[in-house]
Amino acid sequence: MPVPAEIRAVPRPKNTIVEDNGREGPNRYSVRERTSTKYVAGSNPQPHNGKVIGHIIDFKFVPKQTAAAVVKPDMLSYGASALVRSVSDDLKADLLKVYTPSDVYSIMSIASLRVTKPGIASSRMSTEYNRTFVSRDYPGAALSKNSVCGLMNRIGMDGSKRRAFYQLRMENVAADHHVAIDGMLKQDNSKVNDLSAFSRKARVRGSKEISVLYAYDIEIMEPVCAEVFPGNYIDPSAYPAFIRDNDIRKGILVGDKGFPPSKIKAELAERPDLHFLTPIKRNDVRIADNDMLAFEGVLEGVEANVVYKKKQIKGGRYLYSFKDARRAGLEDNTYLANAQKKKTFSPEKYAKKKATFGVIVLESDQDMEPITAYKCFEDRWLLELVFNRYKNDECLDHTDAQGDFSVIGNEFINFISTVITCRIIRKAEKAGLFKTMSYGELMDDLSSAWRRTDAPAEPATDDGYWVHTLVSVFEELEALGLSKPVPKPEPKKRGRKPKPKDQTEQKPKRPRGRPRKNADQSAGDL
To answer: Are strands 251-254 and 178-187 parallel, antiparallel or unpaired?
Structure first.
């Protein structure tokens, strides 16, 4: 198609031609450079046209813009991902000892995003990854929906690698540490895996579940290992399997009544550095046989009013009994209210039960001070807090994974997220931030702190690389050690600045008081 004369007349670089591609749009008239001329015998020279260098748009020559190979953002959300990174470098190091670097970067990216963006779906992983500094912390992570599903399958299929990672975590457990063990149920109505089943309570609700067991080191205040069981798998059956599968060999196991030591006799015999501290039922005959309700003292160093008794029993084990006056009153009130409502009060039953209100009796193979046993079991509530964070703050109370291996791999990454969350909570509490805000509010504030991608590695509040960050958020970043505060000016000294000594004129001192009379002066002169 011939090019109109007015288009050919537009000024453009020399040795170029104009072509009309016939399609409507701004790039219809292309400007090509002439690279060479081919001479043909007996004919006119034939020009050879090269690449397009621009276009004629609105009767003006517009050079062609060179498109970047990959468009990278010049700013990203920084605060929340930086907090996660500040507490998780050792987790990445342990994972690198077991998994390939590419899988480690994907695992850490998913775990980080589940902390900074609770409840995030697999289909949104890549989008959130590309808008935060997680993409700078773990570059090249494969986070498409198919890639995430494939990763979870690989993790779930290779139990040896999971156990190797948990062993690295267990190395941090000292022989005198107390390891709380407990389980929780998660909703999972998948029809294509064998882990999804009806638990005793879930059958009433009509919802299938899976069971997740956690081991929590009370001293370092974070989980050390986890395992997935079918939803209908009761705790006593899971107890020995959990210890064997994770090869727990040292520490003092602190469980509830669902984890009796009678179920792990073989495991305890094979592991001399593994011990237990477990409550027994109130109707256990050993309580009456050893007169454990005849308390012998009051605990010191606890806020509650608690009486106690300690006694060694047959087999070298010890019983520790405690009665909390406040709890006894609450149980008494509850029992009487229910008896009144149901009209089932019996003086004989009430007298028998009243003696055990507020009582807890612990069994252990360790000889310890009663206050130590009491505090160890009381600190077990920390694991309940972990489960609360797991289900609420991290929104991990259900699973959308399908096959068995995917469920197991998914819970492994959830374990990493839970460890990170525990560490963030400890760090924020130490900084005093939870006095004025919740965990969710803190993460929201930090997510609003954006930073340029060309910024230096060590952030400072006044370095000029922040994007629309509020003063209150800067204060949170500084409290967490994520941004260097602005140096405060030295306080001004009060009073006049003293003059240099070499410029100070030496003036004669004025005499104080009345002048003294000289001997040659007469009284008349005065």
So the answer is: parallel
Based on the domain organization, do 310 and 450 belong to the same domain? no
Query: Tokens 């998914």 correspond to what residue?
Result: 410
Across the chain, which distance is largest between two alpha carbons, in Å? 145
Residue 233, in any domain of the structure = yes
- The full DSSP string for 156-209 is HH-HHHHHHHHHHHHTT--TT-EEEEEEEEEE---SS-SS-B--TTHHHHT--E
Count how many domains the chain has: 3
Q: Quick one: tokens of 401?
A: 């994974």
Between CA 180 and CA 146 the distance in angstroms is 36
Closest to 31 in 3D by CA, of 51, 4, 6: 51
SS3 breakdown of the chain: % helix, strand, coil, rounded to 5? 40, 20, 40
Secondary structure letter of residue 484 according to DSSP: B
Say if residue 239 is in the same domain as residue 102.
yes
Q: For residues 251 and 180, what is the distance between their CA atoms, to the nearest angstrom?
A: 10
pTM value surpassing 0.85: no
pLDDT tens by residue, 486-525: 887 777 667 666 666 655 555 555 566 565 555 455 444 4
Rounded Cα distance, 334 and 30, in Å: 87
Q: What pLDDT digit, counting tens, does each position of 216-268 carry?
A: 888 888 889 999 888 656 678 888 999 998 889 999 998 888 888 989 999 99
> From CA 459, how far away is CA 463, in angstroms rounded?
7
Helix axes 159-170, 235-246, angle to 10 degrees: 80
Strand partners, 32: 17, 52
Helix or strand (DSSP H, E) at 223: strand 222-230
Does 80 lie in the same domain as 59? no
β-pair partners for 106: none
Q: Please indicate, yes or no, if residue 175 is contained in any of the structural domains.
A: yes
- Per-residue burial over 339-358, b if 16 or more Cβ lie within 10 Å, else e, is eeeeeeeeeeeeeeeeebbb
- For residues 299 and 58, give the distance between their C-alpha atoms in angstroms, rounded to a whole number: 91
Q: How many angstroms separate the CA atoms of 55 and 32, rounded?
A: 9
User: How many helices (H) and strands (E) in the chain?
Assistant: 19, 16
